[in-house]
């Protein structure tokens, strides 16, 4: 029974996740879902109610690859083992979180 999760909530998270992915991977899709469409869904125009903006510096991964001679993927980490720290730097733009608080959503209370 998933009665505690409403259909609109599922749809909201789905669209929000899609928007976040779109921000990371394909800006074209982001324009496909227009701001007016988001606001008609009652969502934040900026982040789609995720209250998060994907970091463009690290593509939302929260870490930056250094070198790049190895293939991109989780296998990279297991291969390098203990030296993985040398190849994966924390993104200091987003403090390795991969995202920022949405400026639109956090506009009310400025820290
Ligand atoms: Zn980042
Ligand atoms: Zn927002």
Walk me through this protein's architecture.
The longest helix has 18 residues, at 7-24. Residues 75-85 have low confidence and may be disordered. Helix content is 36%, strand content 11%. The protein has 111 residues and is an alpha+beta fold. The N and C termini lie far apart (40 Å). It has two domains: 1-50, no CATH class; 55-102, no CATH class. One zinc ion binds next to loops.
Short description:
It contains five helices and four strands. Helix content is 36%, strand content 11%.
Low-confidence blocks of residues: 75-85
General form: elongated
Tell me the span between the first and last alpha carbons: 40 Å
DSSP helical segment count: 5
Radius of gyration: 17 Å
Strand coverage percent: 5-15%
Report the count of strand segments.
4
Strand order in the largest sheet: 1-4
The profile of the biggest β sheet is: 2 strands, antiparallel
Q: What is the overall pLDDT average?
A: 71
What is the ordering of alpha helices and beta strands? HHHEEHHEE
Sheet/helix structural class? alpha+beta
Percentage of residues assigned to helices: 25-40%
What binds here, in terms of ligands, is: zinc ion
- Total individual domains: 2
Sequence-ordered SSE layout with sheet pairings:
Elements (H helix, E strand, L loop, with lengths): L6 H18 L2 H6 L2 H6 L11 E3 L8 E3 L9 H6 L3 H4 E3 L8 E3 L10
The chain binds zinc ion (2 copies).
Keywords:
111 residues, alpha+beta, two-stranded antiparallel ribbon, 4 strands, 36% helix, binds zinc ion
């Amino acid at each position: 029974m998933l009665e505690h999760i409403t259909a609109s909530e599922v749809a909201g998270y789905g669209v929000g996740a899609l928007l976040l992915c779109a921000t990371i991977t394909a800006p074209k899709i982001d324009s496909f879902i227009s701001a007016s469409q988001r606001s008609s869904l009652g969502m934040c125009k900026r982040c789609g109610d995720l209250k998060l903006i994907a970091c463009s510096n690290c593509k939302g991964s929260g870490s930056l690859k250094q070198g790049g001679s190895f293939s991109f993927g989780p296998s990279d980490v297991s291969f390098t083992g203990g030296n993985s720290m040398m190849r994966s730097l924390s993104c200091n733009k987003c403090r390795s979180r991969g995202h920022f608080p949405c400026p639109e959503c956090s506009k009310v209370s400025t820290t």
